[in-house]
Amino acid sequence: MTDAAAATMAGTIAAEGKDRLDEAKLTAWMEANVAGFAGPLSYTKFAGGQSNPTYKLSSPSGTYVLRRKPSGKLLPSAHAVDREYRLIAGLHPTGFPVARPYGLCTDDGVVGTMFYVMGFADGRNLWDGTLPDYAPAERTAIYHAMGDTLAALHNTDYVAAGLGEYGKPGNYFARQVERWTRQYRASETEHMPEVERLIEFLARTVPEQTRTSIVHGDYRIDNMILHATEPRVIAVLDWELSTLGDPLADFSYFLMSWVTQPEGRSGVLGRTGPETGIPPIEEMVERYCAATGRDGVPDLNWYFSYNLFRLTGIVQGIKKRIVDGTASSAQAEKSAAGVYRLAKASWDFAEKAGA
Known about the structure:
Blueprint: H1 3-10, E1 12-13, H2 23-33, E2 42-46, E3 54-59, E4 62-68, H3 81-91, E5 101-105, E6 115-119, H4 136-155, H5 172-186, H6 193-204, E7 213-215, E8 224-226, E9 233-236, E10 243-245, H7 247-255, H8 281-292, H9 301-324, H10 332-336, H11 338-352
Antiparallel strand pairs: 1-2, 2-3, 3-4, 4-6, 5-6, 7-10, 8-9
């Protein structure tokens, strides 16, 4: 992705139509619920993101971020902004880098759907995993920071953070394969033989779960804010898919960047090593294992197949929302075309894993 494209995704635009907010009602809610807030309030909508519409709120008391459920017909378990808020509120006091939580509103009468307000993390939002604007040593430091932050999440005592009931017990991957199969079925628009084979293979070969941690669910370079000048993550964003589960789900998803072509997003396939400064996958694995007390990770091909299957389900949901007219971003239509590509890539890794 070019810098201009990244700016388009990370920048803000005027909210129009169903994305507009009632400023008077929102201002009244902020005055009653957000400590230190002072109006008047103005807002713009972040251009990126295809799921929960997200807004930048500006006021004399500071800058805030509002995330809300989209309007229209939604899948039952999707867009759970109340879960996101609960997670951020639990993590923030532990010192883990998340935005400051200010308040959750479950009353649809304020802006039309449930929403929450959090602090604005002022730093760098990077999209291109190859980090074209950085020197090799800076790239190494940024990648180490991303890996170390994920290890810190997986080391977090979730019970002490009040999140002991944040996920269901039992094998995370078994539940996730079942969940994404269900989500895929709920938004299915055509018969895809490759997806049918994946559903059968993944359910039959679920790996044993040996650890439980908070799982982010979408941990990649563009879902975090780095400090403006230091190689340090100051806020991990977009917790919509978070739960308690197998930390290898997050770690293997993060490592997908190393097996993904560099097309301006997170992919760095073929771009690692001393000359670029991007650590090879083996170095990232070794560093994560040292930080989390592991003696290694299992064969990653099954996990890569699973991650791509899950993405297939997510993108199929976007495709369905286009059909139903509830998609939140102009990028959605383009993303929907990726369903076929994702399903094929998932099956390629399934075959490497023995399918």
